[in-house]
Amino acid sequence: MLRHEESLQAKQRALLQQLDCLDQECEELRASLGEAEDDKAKLAHQLKETQTEKQQVQGQLEAQQQLVENLQQEKLSFEQTTSELLRNISELDELLQELKERERLLVSFPDLHIPAETQFECTGNITDDMEKQLQANNIRISVLEEENSRLRTALAKMKEAAQQGVLKVSLTPATSQCKGGQLLNSNRQSAMQAESGALSTMAQPILVIKQEHPKPWPPAGRRLSPEWSGFLPERW
């Protein structure tokens, strides 16, 4: 009996020890469960924040993509506009050069280059006609001044080259054989022709009048009728 009781007591002690171990394990598991739940809650909160950030980033990305598309469209539009502007500028430059050459020819050779569109009829108003003639003369003077400026520049360069001994300019252009003398003689002749043509052009009205007009604008070299002589300059 004693041995039986001792064995039962030993078993009881062993069970109590196991029970204590299980209690400790249970407490540990409960603590771990609490920590796991806390971690789960944190992870859930982080996941929610991450999803919110993801949505924000996606919205920003879509907005940036839309902005990039708009900028690309604007770039294409600007490139097309720039191309058109460059083409227009090129055409305007060509037209400007043509008009400058035409203006120069009109001043140098007025009798040979009179386009039909510049032949105006007399308006019947002496003030308007004289203002138009004044504008035409101012254009001729401006072209002649530009030509004189170019001639002065060329002459200054030739004189500088002659002083340095690079170019020899003869005092007798008619018998000179050097290139500098020929160029100087050619420039002088061109200047004299331009000035002569401009003066002859300025002496003639730019307006062309039909013969059936009751009071035609008198061309250069003709005597003025008494009704016009009181209003026009003496050169007419």
TrEMBL record:
Highest taxon listed in the record's lineage: Eukaryota
Keyword Methyltransferase carried by entry: no
Keywords, comma-separated and alphabetical: Coiled coil
Region (Disordered) residue spans: 213-236
Coiled-coil annotated spans: 5-102, 127-164
InterPro entries associated with the record: CCDC157 (IPR029681)
Protein name listed in UniProt: Coiled-coil domain-containing protein 157
